[in-house]
Amino acid sequence: MSSPVQMTVEDGIAVIEINNPPVNALSQAVRQGLIEAARAADADPDVKAIVVYGAGRTFIAGADIREFGKPPMPPGLPEVIDEFELVSTPTVAALHGTALGGGLETALGAHYRIALASGRFGLPEVHLGILPGAGGTQRLPRVVPIAKAVEMITGGGMIGAKEALALGLIDEIAEGDDIRAAGIAMARRLVSEGKGVRPLSAEEPNRVTAEEFETMRSMVAKKARGLIAPLNCMKAIEAGMTMPFTEGRQRERELIMELFASPQSGAMIHAFFADREVAKVPELKTGTPRNIAKMGVVGGGTMGAGIATSALLAGLDVTLAEREAEAAERAAATVQSHLAGAVKRGKLKQDAYDAIMGGKFRTTTDYNDFADADLVIEAVFESMEVKKDVFGQLDVICKPGAILASNTSYLNVDEIAAMTNRPEDVIGLHFFSPAHVMRLLEVVVGDKTSDDVVASGFALAKTMKKIAVRSGVCDGFIGNRILNAYAKAINGAVLAGASPYDVDRAMQDFGLAMGLFRVADLAGLDIGWANRKRKADSRDPNEQYAEFADRICELGRFGRKTGRGFYIHDKAKGELPDDEVLEIIARERADKGITPRAISDAEVIDRYMAAMINESAKVVGEGIALRPLDVDITLLNGYGFPRWRGGPLHYADTVGLDKVLNDIKTFAKEDTNFWQPAPLLEQLVADGKTFASLNR
Length: 696
Ligand code: T1G
What we know:
It comes from Shimia gijangensis. One of its GO terms (molecular function) is NAD+ binding. Monomer. This is 3-hydroxyacyl-CoA dehydrogenase. By secondary structure, the chain is of the alpha/beta class. It has three domains: 256 residues, 2-enoyl-CoA Hydratase, Chain A, domain 1 (Alpha-Beta Complex), CATH 3.90.226.10; 180 residues, Rossmann fold; 216 residues, N-(1-d-carboxylethyl)-l-norvaline Dehydrogenase, domain 2 (Orthogonal Bundle), CATH 1.10.1040. The strands form four sheets. Strands 12-11-10-13-14-15-16-17 form an eight-stranded mixed β-sheet, with helices on both faces. Strands 1-2-3-4-6-9 form a six-stranded mixed β-sheet, with helices on both faces. Strands 5-7-8 form a three-stranded mixed β-sheet. Helix 19 runs antiparallel to helix 25. The chain is globular and about 85 Å long. (2S,3S)-3-hydroxy-2-methylbutanoyl-COA binds next to strand 5 and helix 3.
């Protein structure tokens, strides 16, 4: 098999091409080929300069993540870059696409750097729970100011070519789009100007005072929220400022090895691949996506306006319908403000904004304007009657082959489909609020939904840069069904003796951005209250039911929007515990004959996770979710589950399924009906298997 690295010499310029699709990852073969080519070029007396570039859509996008966790295969990337840097011939890295991680580190090992204007650069290793381990933490601070190096390395974001040029990270932005030619031209100029080698490792690093660095370190620690990689990044950068290069590189190596040994990197690498694997559903093989250029949106409330914005940002033509003209105007204003915000944040260019507002977006009060839409999605009130009425009308108006979608968050998509003569064209597309920000999209597949329509849903998600997860039909689909389960478990912990405030703190210490009760106050307690009232008739009388949230709602306290809910929302002092809430809970315990006991943070989390894992196992076992990774991705991208724990079922594998099953049996003593072990969980424990074994 030919090497993914080829070298040609053209009039004294050695051109090294890396060709390892899809992203030129630094596999063992690439590393081997790169260093052999560099040695050969350096030994060739006719070669006056060396250019390295990537074939295809991008320069190197990093180390080959698929090699992680396997025995190291020499040559190691750090050594390759160190040797590459010390060749006696000037080297040019010619960059396009995304030069990331080990790719940017390789570029920093070159003496000069040129890029296309569309090039982007970053060190995203922290998103994998590790750090730039091939000299990045030592060389980057030798080019950019420490504050910028800290931001790039601990934040893992990308910067564009203009900023890179201003920082000195690249020396030139190439004209046109032929990066190979631009690299060669730059090399020729260097030779004609007599420019020599310029190894960064020989440069002095930028520095800040110890006090300034400690201030940066404490800010990074605050943002890390339990993730240890950013802390090790700071230690590596500190080493770069205080040690000679070789010792700093050694310290960097120790620090990345610590991170590889932590479960956090395993969890985040799992999440990286799961984010991509989740889009590989069976219907993509059997279905053909339909072209979706024109989208109709029914309903201009928060969700409808958010969905319309997301579709417009993806380049679709959007018509949004409301019943009344005033409501339609309000929706248009909401969409306009979302788009203006996107321009301000640099997510939308002004000319693209003008094109949208100049003709790609309109509102209407007449559903007949949907006649030529390729897909119409409704985001109307969560009532089956209302949705059935809407679908009945759309079925008549929309062209044959148009897809009819519902944004319902729990209603039965099969029942909705039955209101039409085209159930095979009906699908659920459950967006998460705010729909133009949240990446998760549950694609809910009805019994009769055709493979083409499923494939179309996933293609639309990709166009809208959403992470689509395939869900079957059940109450709450994947995410909300699991949320309802762990919320019940948390309420059980409160009835047993925990306070909502202890619970929120324990959940935040576990790594969630916000605990359950803070989230509820933010979302509005009335939403959950309406949900519980909707399901009251079908509630299992034998299951424990926590009433304290209903009592709070009956006082008209719906959370932040009314100033009081579980917390008192004080404008000056922020969120404060509410003694009246504690009194309501104490009264309920007394009514239920419960003698409260101290509930440790560990027990709160054990309950929370046991319920989440158990319901997740039911969701997978019933085929609502295709694989355990689909549940992980749902909770990671829609429910704030900490990414460095990999998702509930990856987490379950790390704590051990037998422990989880034992916890469930322990809590079942309080509420047998609720704590019924999932058959799949029992089977895996009996077989000594993991959830991961079901992901392949
Ligand atoms: N290694 C292996 N496979 C990779 C890969 C990588 N680094 N990056 C992408 N892929 C696969 C991906 O799984 C998918 O495979 C396909 O390529 C297309 O990816 C020593 C230790 C580059 C911005 O973290 O951010 O360097 O699903 O769907 O949306 O310091 O991929 O088709 O089979 O994402 O156009 C650091 C990770 C590594 C970059 C392109 N680098 N990749 O996005 O395509 S650690 C990263 C990305 C490191 C050194 C350290 C994105 C992208 P499949 P895609 P995309």
